[in-house]
Amino acid sequence: MNKVDLKLMDDIKRIKQEKSIYIIAHYYQRDEIQDIADFIGDSYAMAIAAKESPCKTILVAGVDFMAQTAAMLCPDKIILSPETRATCPMANSTFVEDILDYKRDHPDAIVISYVNTPAEIKAVSDICCTSSNAEKIIRQLPEKSRIFFIPDRNLGINIARRLGRIFDYYYSSCPIHARVTKKEILQLKQKYLNALVLVHPECDPEVVEIADYVGSTAGILKYTCDSKASRFIIGTECGIMHSIQKACPAKELILASSELICPNMKSITLDKILYSLENLETVITVEESIREKAILALEKMIEYASA
Ligand code: SF4
Question: In terms of domains, do 217 and 78 share one?
Fold first, then answer.
């Protein structure tokens, strides 16, 4: 860590203390941002942390749908984003008209939207999910129900296979997790003998098939620390390596590809966070007519996930 970053970190810690601002960060954030956060988690844990935040003002270090989700779940709190251009290409590939067309053709189907969607998409969905709770939620839905899973096709297929079901899918996926390939994993397994392969369910189904564990970022972290094994090939965005290494420093971690970097997550920097805290910018709000519909899908997710 250089001197400039250390100074920025000190300033951030002081200002958030003075102004009583709670910083929630995703595991894909830069190492130094994880180090100044009050809470680090996957998107589900971030949503719950926002709801339970001890402070009235929350800074969300993550992409836009994460700050939007916090704003919808906490209308009485001030939600700050340090970089409003940090977005998710997968979330942005969904269109309300597509969902409405599908619903018109399949009025009895249940629309499940991954939390990686804009508020407008959540507003026309029946229930939200994250990679950590999707399976649990779908198990509680009527067995014969027709499900439209949006927007991540890989996540949908991987869950459907585990449950022995077939869903209707939206044709989108995460461009970062698409960089994990079966070929590269097999090469790494030959090079790093006895390494366990842990991947995120946004990875291609053929990658998931050869993995020893499939789970959310929080799940991968927990699995690594709890496992008796000592060497792991990690198939998700590189930011998780920092949190795992801090939680269990004796474990050997190998990233499944050197290209597992989400530029949107990494566009948030310490100086942007400091500016955001000093100026209380940018406040994220969601239009009430959208929020009142989207919150139903989010609250249903929380209800089913905590059942
Ligand atoms: S890692 Fe993938 S799903 Fe997550 S924000 Fe980046 S592009 Fe979106």
Answer: no
